[in-house]
Amino acid sequence: MPRIHWLDVHPSPAGERLRAALAAWGHEIVPGAGPGSLVLVAEHPDPRLVPAEGTEILWWVEQAEPEEVSAVLNLRPGWVLLQDRPLEAAREAILHLRQRDLGSEGWLRQMMHLATLDELLRLALGRAIRLSGAKGGAIWLRRDDLFYQRAGDGIFPEAPLPGQEAADLVRRGEAYLLVPSEQLGILRLADPKEPPDRFLRDFDDMAPLLLNAWHLEESRALSFKDDLTVAQNRRCLEAELPQAVRSAAANAEPLALLFLDVDDLKRVNTRHGHPAGSLLLEAVARTAQRLCRAHDRLYRYGGDEFCILMPGTTSQGARKLGERLLQVLQEHPLDLGRDHLAVSLSAGVAAYPEHADGAGHLIAQADHALLQAKSEGKGRVVVAG
């Protein structure tokens, strides 16, 4: 009868179900850590929970961030599974662990059920920096003829790179092309100490996952695209905002939401016609998109309302963007042929965790600040109190 050690750090009903299944599969369950395979039941992977004994560990957890998974697997060979996975997945994982069947991409396969594209990129960049001995780095992904930074630690500017500039960096050996067959993106490292082969192997292992996540993101982008403007739609915001709040909380970073309302759109439609109103909305969205950073997200919330989600940004940073957008729009009236239309908007700002403790609360606070801006005379930016 195969023996497996059992460590219940945070007991749960899912843990009891797995324990009963292991017994039914013929395993002898030994309480506590010990030599050989170990099942560790916890709320999330935590390096502080890794025991002194245990050759390999199956983590059976309620939730897990990519960085947590990477941290525990760097300390001890193992597998990380969420407790909502089928019990058969745990049985298969234990079999792989006993056979040491992790392979060159073993660290990566732990992530297959957890990682979004951004999570994969963040994890891969961290490993590349660590394996290369670099001071820092960043990853840009291609979109049309530009490369946009999607993961980075601040050592390189966030500005988009024209395709030719990215190609020149690769040609000079200052950047490395990711998934060359698709020209998915580029990796730049600051002062790497190791040769490329040392840290690029992971990206070869990762190519199928990156491409799948990229194509999934592209297909979702089509369904999340506003029909009229360059912005994403409200459905996209409702899908992405909770995830952005969770990420901000996990990384102890601020997250700002800027709500925008185009002033007097109904009057424009009445006086100049609905086509002019549509042109106005398109112009506001294009200008906002141009002023946003690469990782900011622009959404059309509905009708004459837009919002901008700004990761890693305080309310004051969002206020500055709102004021800059208002200034640019006021300085460039919309050309209607025979007439020029003055453009104005009102804006409300709220930030997590400064003003709100969750996604719905953040929307409500930003919307309340927007209503205050409208009531105070329009054409201004108000920060939530």
Overview of the molecule:
- The chain is globular.
- It folds into three domains: about 5-110, 3-Layer(aba) Sandwich (Rossmann fold), CATH 3.40.50; about 115-225, 2-Layer Sandwich (Beta-Lactamase); about 235-385, Alpha-Beta Plaits (2-Layer Sandwich).
- A hairpin with a 2-residue loop joins strand 12 and strand 13.
- It is an alpha/beta fold.
- About 45% of the residues lie in helices and about 25% in strands.
- It holds the Pfam family GGDEF.
Helix/strand-derived category reads alpha/beta
CATH topology of the largest domain: Alpha-Beta Plaits
Beta-strand percent range: 15-25%
Strand segment tally: 17
Question: In brief, what are we looking at here?
Answer:
44% of the residues lie in helices and 23% in strands. It is α/β, with parallel strands linked by helices and 385 residues long.
Topology:
Layout: E1 3-8, H1 13-24, E2 28-31, E3 37-42, E4 56-61, H2 66-75, E5 78-82, H3 87-98, H4 106-109, H5 117-132, E6 136-143, E7 146-152, E8 161-162, H6 163-171, E9 176-178, E10 185-190, H7 196-223, H8 234-250, E11 255-262, H9 265-272, H10 274-291, E12 297-302, E13 305-311, H11 315-331, E14 334-335, E15 340-341, E16 345-352, H12 359-375, E17 381-383
Parallel strand pairs: 1-2, 1-3, 3-4, 4-5, 16-17
Antiparallel strand pairs: 6-7, 6-10, 7-8, 9-10, 11-13, 11-16, 12-13, 14-15
Helix pairs in contact: 5-7, 9-10, 10-11
